Amino acid sequence: MHKRLWLLAGAAVAMLLVAVSATATTTKVSKGTSASLSAAPFAQAWANVPQTTAGRKAKSVLVFGEEQDVNGFNTNLTCCNQLAGGYLGFNETIRGAYNINNKGVHIKDLVSAASANSKTLHFTIKPKASWYYGGKKLPVTYKDFVYTWKNIVDPKNDVAGRAGYNQISGYPTGA
What we know:
Layout (H helix, E strand, L loop, with lengths): L1 H22 L2 E3 L5 E3 L3 H8 L5 H6 L24 H11 L4 E3 L5 E3 L2 E6 L4 E5 L4 E4 L2 E4 L2 H12 L22
Antiparallel strand pairs: 1-2, 3-4, 5-6, 7-8
């Protein structure tokens, strides 16, 4: 019985190796190296990047690497709550009451004042705070904050966390 299992496993590995080697065609890229066809566009682009820091600076080329696949940029959702998603899109495009600097300090962004106690949270929205939506500049209103809060506390939404938001029980209408 064990001999048949090993024979079957060996045959499966052999078929896998044949399949992989049949599809793994290569192409020559600069400096005599080879890469798979799917990597060829990257290799061609990389060949044009200056090799020295001074050369890259002279051509205004920035080189960076990313180790994590990004599922999406809405880091409030469980599926997309990734550091890379924040760096590549969310932090640059999604605005809120505050931004957090590299020292962990909260800097007011859309608000000019904020206060909180055990029962209330109060923001004063900056008069010039605005969104760009569909090519139009729209003012930020309390409705934007209410919309965000409602979506985060909605149990139908698979958010990464509701901490803090789940302590808010309502908002004054027509504020």
